[in-house]
Amino acid sequence: MSETKAEGLSDLRAEIDRIDREMHALLMERGEIIDRLIAVKAQQGGGSAFRPGREADMMREIASRHHGRLPLDTVESIWRVIISTFTYVQSNYSVHADLSGGDSAMRDSARFHFGFTVPLVGHATPAGVIAAVAGSQRPDGGGDLGMIRAGFHAEDDRWWERLAAADAPKIIARLPFVERPGHPAGTPVFIISNPLAEAAATDVALYSARGRAAPDVSGWGGLGCEILGQSEGDGFSLLLSVPGDWTVERLKKLPGGAALETISWIGSHAERFALSPG
Predict the structure, then answer these.
(1) At a CB cut-off of 8 Å and minimum separation 6, what does 236 contact?
(2) Which residue from 3, 43, 87, 171 lies 20 to 30 Å from 222 (Cα-Cα)?
(3) Domain boundary among 163, 186, 202
(4) Helix (H) or strand (E) holding 209
(5) Residue 189 within a domain
(6) Residue 168 has pLDDT above 50, yes or no
(7) What is the rounded CA–CA span in Å between residue 232 and residue 38?
């Protein structure tokens, strides 16, 4: 009886070893494809290695098909690290994180989504992150990424206005892609990069809006306009999240929207995938 059980365990362990070897071989094969991808891109004149729309589609597919004993947290993190690391070996970049709201949550989010191979650089303010990303742009289209908390900041911090210029960095993603209760890196963050010529995700659009007098925004949420940032110091300033097909004209038609004197598109991101507790 004990001999049969020992043989059974040995067979199972051998099967696990086989799977581990195959997974490693597939990762190395993926790396060889990246080498070919780099060569093709060089022939075509380069371009950004970031593909936020494709990444979001991959994560939705993984979350939708996942089942079994292995926690989705682990699977999501593994794939995020694979994607981010292979992007890094394709075109080196750093992640600049806004630590103004605390260090631990942002570092957890950065490590969950980007792993330990991609360098992480902390900044005391969102402005520091935006300046670092803007200064990282390379002639080949490469550059760094920035992480800024998606929630409210200090009352006088209008960081989103720094994204309004046409050549300023823009929001390209909102993490985590997969939302669920108890997410190990659940702090909502925006990812910014220098403007992408292609491959942007456009399900949700972000706008910076300014005016002299604050409008009554109490009913805007029910109309599809989410206010993610607000400041009423020197006039009022809003960070607005709306469906991707909304235009400046659509925003001005909101109740009180005529008070929005300056409206600037500052990026877009994929619709997040919400997973129920069950």
Answers:
(1) 210, 211, 212, 213, 214, 230
(2) 171
(3) 202
(4) strand 204-211
(5) yes
(6) yes
(7) 47
